[in-house]
Each structure stands twice: as C-alpha cells, then as structure tokens.
Specification:
Elements: E1 3-9, E2 19-25, E3 30-39, H1 44-60, H2 69-92, E4 101-102, E5 104-110, E6 113-119, E7 123-128, E8 131-134, H3 141-147, H4 153-158, E9 178-183, E10 189-193, H5 195-198, H6 203-210, H7 217-230, E11 237-243, H8 247-253
Antiparallel strand pairs: 1-11, 2-3, 3-4, 3-5, 5-6, 6-9, 7-8, 7-10, 10-11
Helix pairs in contact: 1-2, 6-7
Length: about 260
C-alpha cells in the first residue's frame, strides 16, 4: 500500500500561498496527486492553482477501474488540457485574473506504476536507494539556455532569471503537456514539489531526508519544508511524497527478523 503525505507553507517572504496541493486515494484504486504553483499577482495566482487542482480532481474522480497505462495517460493529459481551458477562459472574462497561470505536476498511480503530467517548473523526483532522479524537465528560459550549452549547470541553478517560464498552464489557449511513465520499486519515494523547495534544497539534502525510511513519511515531508525555510523561504513551499514501503524496513522497525 502506497503511503502519501503533502505539506505546504507560505514561506518567509510572501503574504499569500499561491501553491495548491491535493492527494486522494480514488475509489477505483488509483492514487491522484497534484502540485500547482500559481502566478499572476494578488488573488490570480492562488485562483489559477486552485482551478487546476479542482479541474483535475473532478475530471479524474470518475475514471473506470482497471484502465491500461495508455488510457490513464490520455485521461491525465485530457484533464490537464481541460484545466488549461478553464483557467484561460476565467482570466479572459475577469480583468483581475488577467494573464494568470500556474505550473502543474500531477501523478496518477495504479499500484506501483503511474503516469506524470507536467507543465512549468514544479518537479517530480524519484528517490531510490539514496539516488535522486529528476523525472520532469523544467519549462524555463534558463533550462533552455542550459540545454543549448549557453550556460553551465552551476549558472543555471543560480541564474537571476531562473524562474522565467517558457510554458505554463492557463496563460495561452493551447499548451503542450509533458507525460512521463514511472514505476516504483519497494523502498522508492516519489516527490512532487514546487520550486520553493527545489530552488533552495539540494538533491543531496533531499536524498538524506527522504531516504531516512526509519522516520515517518510525515516527518520527512516536514523536514524538507523546514530546510527550505532555513535556506531563506523566499517562495511558497509545497511537498508531496508517495512511498512504496520496503517490507524489510517495516519488519526491522518492529524488531522482527526480515
């Protein structure tokens, strides 16, 4: 049984938390998790991220059970594209929401396998045996410069324009969704997060905190959030964890022979 937890914090600088997060074990047996990081100024950013979460949650709540990976991919992609339409149309009909948008990273799990849909610079990582692997690719200007060889990895991490997005949910009438498949092994943890975490907490720190399987999942999520706050907390911070427990760890925690 996959364990889940999510936490969010406004951070030390912002007055409003424009991040939204949502995790549910659906009746059909799937697990749906969403992290969205809104943008667009007062009220608009949190409205955009909330609309993204609400639209995805509503569209995917009625999925049939036993769907193939192909069908789940199509369902998640369609839901994200629907959210894009909802946010874009809401902004078009109300001046106070002009040009609002949001990132989104969402996972639809069926047992240990799943599909990730992604737009923007919120990220998905898999932490496996102490190794952190980034699943998603940031849709940012700085990442494009890095891919084209114009800046180094170090320059990418510290670039003053690293938060400029090249793709977002809701800012245009049409958008492309990146889709990735994942498969978790026992002991693996999937992390979804906003850039309020990934900009301030290193992969080495993520590995150490998330890999400490002897600690409850809730404690590990809180620790990641706390590290981002200690590093400055200059943005909203959201963390969502999905763990496929290692049975041998559970047994050893209870003092039994594995």
């Amino acid at each position: 049984m996959i364990k889940t937890v999510h936490v969010s914090h406004v951070g030390r600088v912002r007055s409003v938390n424009e991040d939204s997060a949502w995790i549910r074990h659906l009746e059909q047996g799937y697990i749906l998790g969403i992290v969205a990081d809104g943008m667009g100024g007062h009220l608009a950013g949190d409205t955009a991220s909330r609309l993204a979460v609400e639209t995805l949650a509503a569209d995917l709540a009625t999925l049939e059970s036993g769907l193939s990976a192909h069908s789940l991919t199509a369902a998640l992609s369609d839901a994200i594209l629907h959210a894009n339409e909802v946010i874009f149309q809401t902004a078009a009909h109300d001046d106070k929401y002009h040009n609002m948008g949001t990132t989104v990273v969402a996972v639809l799990l069926n047992d240990a396998s799943g599909i990730i849909g992604h737009i923007g610079d919120s990220r998905a990582y898999v932490i496996s045996k102490g190794v952190v692997r980034q699943i998603t690719e940031d849709h940012t200007l700085v990442n494009e410069l890095f891919k084209n060889g114009q800046i180094s990895k170090e320059e990418r991490e510290n670039h003053p324009r690293r938060n400029v997005l090249t793709r977002a949910l809701g800012t245009d009438s049409e958008v492309q969704v990146d889709m990735d498949s994942i498969s978790l092994e026992k002991g693996d943890v999937l992390l979804l997060c906003s850039d309020g975490l990934s900009n301030l907490v290193t992969e080495d720190q993520i590995s150490k905190v998330v890999g400490a399987a002897e600690n409850p999942l809730e404690e590990r999520a809180d620790r990641l959030l706390h590290l981002a706050l200690l590093a400055g907390g200059d943005d909203n911070i959201t963390v969502a964890l999905f763990e496929l427990p290692d049975d041998t760890v559970s047994l050893s925690e209870k003092g039994c022979d594995a």
